[in-house]
Amino acid sequence: MENEQIALEIRVYGIVQGVGFRSFARKKAHEYGIKGYVRNLIDGSVEVIAEGDKKALENFLVEISRGPVFARVDRVEKREIQPRGFKSFEVRF
């Protein structure tokens, strides 16, 4: 199916807070036309809710799995969720 819109809940573990990860995720989301948000969680991980074209999300996930230069991504968990109809991608606090 062309342009299939899906949504993912992504959790990123490792050294992902205090290293520019949220700004990196926002920049990459804008590049790929992804909507949703990114936020730090209390356990030291980062949560990303991402909606968009399936192929764009696959590419976004590759970027997120690498992270910015000062991050160290140890593990990425993802699961498909119902799209919520986000209009933009934002950093949440």
Q: Any key phrases for this structure?
A:
93 residues; alpha+beta; Alpha-Beta Plaits; globular
What is the mean pLDDT? 96
Radius of gyration: 12 Å
- What's the helix-strand series? EHEEHEE
For the biggest β-sheet, the strand order reads 4-1-3-2-5
The share of residues in helices is 25-40%
Question: What is the name of the CATH topology?
Answer: Alpha-Beta Plaits
What would you call the quaternary organization? single chain
Shape field: globular
| Straight-line N-to-C gap | 35 Å
Describe the structure.
The protein is α+β, with helices and mostly antiparallel strands and 93 residues long. The chain is built from two helices and five strands. The protein has one domain: Alpha-Beta Plaits (2-Layer Sandwich), CATH 3.30.70. The longest helix is centred in the middle third of the chain and has 13 residues. The termini are far apart. The model has no long low-confidence stretch (mean pLDDT 96).
How are the SSEs placed, and which strands pair?
Blueprint: E1 5-15, H1 21-32, E2 35-40, E3 46-53, H2 54-66, E4 72-81, E5 89-92
Parallel strand pairs: 2-5
Antiparallel strand pairs: 1-3, 1-4, 2-3
